[in-house]
């Protein structure tokens, strides 16, 4: 099982993740896309990446606004797996804009 990152380690990782915030209990980012179909296309791509990584974010969809939350539930907090997933989400969002 992956180790939960300390508060200091989470802060350090968040420094390299634009738009993400959080603490050892979870990290999140909200993004706005151009349209509802654009937002759903991003969700589809994130779903494929999550399957590839075997690690899945919580996703809230509000019209064209998406909120991603990453936490390793089995570990009880944020692990390096969540940071890796956040980076993949960032890549996907960046390419959609």
TrEMBL record:
<protein>
    <recommendedName>
        <fullName>Putative pterin-4-alpha-carbinolamine dehydratase</fullName>
        <ecNumber>4.2.1.96</ecNumber>
    </recommendedName>
</protein>
<dbReference type="InterPro" id="IPR036428">
    <property type="entry name" value="PCD_sf"/>
</dbReference>
<dbReference type="Pfam" id="PF01329">
    <property type="entry name" value="Pterin_4a"/>
</dbReference>
<dbReference type="InterPro" id="IPR001533">
    <property type="entry name" value="Pterin_deHydtase"/>
</dbReference>
<comment type="similarity">
    <text>Belongs to the pterin-4-alpha-carbinolamine dehydratase family.</text>
</comment>
<keyword id="KW-0456">Lyase</keyword>
């Amino acid at each position: 099982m992956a180790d939960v990152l300390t508060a200091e380690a989470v802060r350090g990782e968040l420094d390299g993740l634009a738009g993400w915030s959080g603490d050892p209990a979870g990290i999140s980012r909200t993004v706005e896309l151009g349209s509802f179909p654009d937002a759903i296309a991003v969700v589809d791509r994130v779903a494929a990446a999550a399957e590839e990584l075997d690690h899945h974010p919580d996703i809230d969809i509000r019209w064209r606004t998406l909120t991603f939350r990453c936490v390793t539930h089995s570990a009880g907090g944020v692990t390096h797996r969540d940071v890796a997933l956040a980076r993949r989400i960032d890549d996907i969002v960046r390419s959609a804009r």
